[in-house]
Amino acid sequence: MNHLPALPRSQRGASLVIGLVLLLVLSILAVSTMSSATFGLTMAGNAQFSENAFQLAETGVEVAINDGPFCAGCGPKATPATAVADADGNDIGEYEASTDYLECTAVEGFSEDYGSADSFKAYHFQINSTGTAARAARSVHQQDFFLVGPNGCL
User: Fold this and answer.
1) Using one digit for the tens of pLDDT, what is the confidence trace for 56-83?
2) Strands of 91-106's sheet, edge to edge?
3) b or e along 25-55 (b: 16 or more beta carbons within 10 Å of the residue's beta carbon)?
4) Of the candidates 23, 100, 110, 143, which lies 20 to 30 Å from 128 by C-alpha distance?
């Protein structure tokens, strides 16, 4: 008959304890890696929503410029909040813009070939546009421009 030699009492269960400790270390590493990956995905999502808000604010500026005509004495002109969706119908966010008349100045470098320097003026306007996307991403843009028109009439 074959008999296995008896193990010394001090060695019994040591491999079980070492195995459990190694398993605990691997579990902690796995949880840490998952936490880092989730944080990275959240940061990438926030960057995407921030970019969406930026593009929405730019869209507000473009829409306000295309909405003309502009009037020197008409007061602020507002583009209402407009929701935007992607091709699949998913909500991206919204934009809104307002156009304000600022001032009327002389046209710099005006050529006398086209009449007197007082015949035309530069009418200055300012567009303020706000884009809002998910996760409270928000971008505010300000665009100034001027139009040259007849003196006293725009």
Assistant:
1) 999 999 999 998 788 887 888 898 999 9
2) 77-85, 91-106, 120-133, 138-150
3) eeeeeeeeeeeeeeeeeeeeeeeebbebbbb
4) 110
The number of distinct structural domains making up the chain is 1
Structural domain includes residue 37: yes
Q: What are the two backbone dihedrals, phi and then psi, of residue 129, each rounded to the nearest 5 degrees?
A: -125, 140
Domain annotation covers residue 6 = no
Separation of CA 78 from chain center: 21
Long-range Cβ pairs for the range 32-41 (8 Å, 24+)? none
The β-bridge partners of 130 are 96, 140
For residues 92 and 131, is the Cβ–Cβ distance under 8 A? no
DSSP strands (E only) in 15-119: 77-85, 91-106
How much is the pTM? Answer: 0.73
Read out DSSP for 70-84?
--TTS--EEEEEEEE
Domain residue limits at 54: 13-150
Residue 2 maps to a domain: no
CA distance 113 to 74: 31
Distance CA 119, CA 128 (A): 30
